[in-house]
Amino acid sequence: MTFPLYRRPGTVAFLDDDPAYLEMLADVMPRDWSVKLFIDPLDCIHHIQSEPARWEADAWRQQDMIDRARNGQALIPQILTYWAEDGNNRFDLTRILVVDYSMPAMNGLQTLGTLEDWPGSRILLTGQADEQIAVTAFNQGLIEQFIPKQSVDITRRLTDAIKRMLELPVRGQGQIWRATLSREQYALLCSPTIAPLLGALVQRQRWVEHVVIGTPFGVLGLDAVGQASWLQLEHRDNLRDLAELAWSQGIAAPDVDDIRSGRKLVDLELQLALNSGQPARLASAIALGAADTPLWGAVFTINPAVCPGSSKGYAAHLAALGDRELPE
After folding, report:
1. pLDDT tens digit string along 183-205?
2. Strands 286-287 and 6-7
3. Stated pTM of the model
4. Which residues contact residue 152 at a Cβ distance below 8 angstroms, ignoring those fewer than 6 apart?
5. Gap between the Cα atoms of 305 and 92, Å rounded
6. Residue 315 has pLDDT above 80, yes or no
């Protein structure tokens, strides 16, 4: 297991020529998902085919931030600016497409075959007679999963499959952010002990989006109302240096001892990256593992003035979508 380096929500699209079935899917899918509904395969194809250029521009923007960081520009304020300037646009990009196989004008696989440049995940809904076709398509890598429509637990199976896919990074984005990490940092995120604990800690923050960076080492997260916070990560071997830095900045001796022992962390690097001019803050450290864990984490809030804000958060995106209605 590897902790995802970049995660964000996106749109889940459904294509089915049966309006009643499509309405059922719209009703049972979680309300915190961005959902689009299509009855006509050509309308769906036209919409999805309009997205690859936007995906490419978004990936270029992320790569440009990393290139600027190599030239000395701090990553954290760049990411906050990216989130603010992008607004809700990235949430509108389709992450997953669920397609019914049996449609009269164009079957599901024919539809998916027109979307070669689209980087999202594909789920095929099948009838009993279609399952061997679906197995072949899965083995050829044309779809990520197929689910029989006649399954008695179709809602649970489909919802679980989509949830798993939404947890995965978009193709290529993880590799972009991998470049910010050292080999040692990446190894920690791949640890079978640390990765699930880090995932649980991030989940408790109620972030809908996060990015892992290497300098400073940590996770920058954004919640549904556009408020960002910072999960600072420190290796055990770096605690002594962090304590000495804290001492040089006038942190009191008892707090310096707590930093050295892994009981507290201090956000000196965050304040430096933000060029905030604010005094450093301390927070209780969380051991990501057993007593001899090599990694500690601590969560720090970020001044709302430099965060995207509620109008550019995921909750605002969902509110703007309105009711889930079938296309006319």
Report:
1. 999 999 999 999 999 999 999 99
2. unpaired
3. 0.93
4. none
5. 25
6. yes
- Provide the H-helix boundaries in the chain: 19-28, 41-49, 52-70, 75-86, 89-92, 108-113, 131-139, 154-167, 173-178, 183-190, 194-204, 239-248, 253-260, 268-274, 314-321
CB 76 within 8 A of CB 61: no
3-state secondary structure at position 244: helix
The fraction of the chain above a pLDDT of 90, given in percent, is 80
Residue with tokens 């079938």: 326
Q: What is the dihedral of CA 288, 289, 291, 292, to 10 degrees?
A: -100
Domains annotated on the chain, with CATH: 7-169 (3.40.50.2300), 174-310 (no CATH)
- Is residue 301 within 8 Å of 75, Cβ to Cβ? no
Whole-angstrom distance, CA of residue 89 vs CA of residue 121: 19
Residue with tokens 């001019």: 277
- Quick check: helix, strand or coil at residue 162? helix
DSSP category for residue 118 = -
| pLDDT at residue 289, rounded to an integer | 80
The answer to whether residues 17 and 103 touch, using CB atoms and an 8 Å cutoff, is: yes
What length is written for the chain?
Answer: 328
Helix or strand or coil: residue 17?
coil
How far CA 90 is from CA of 57, 126, 165, 210, in Å, comes to 11, 30, 17, 13
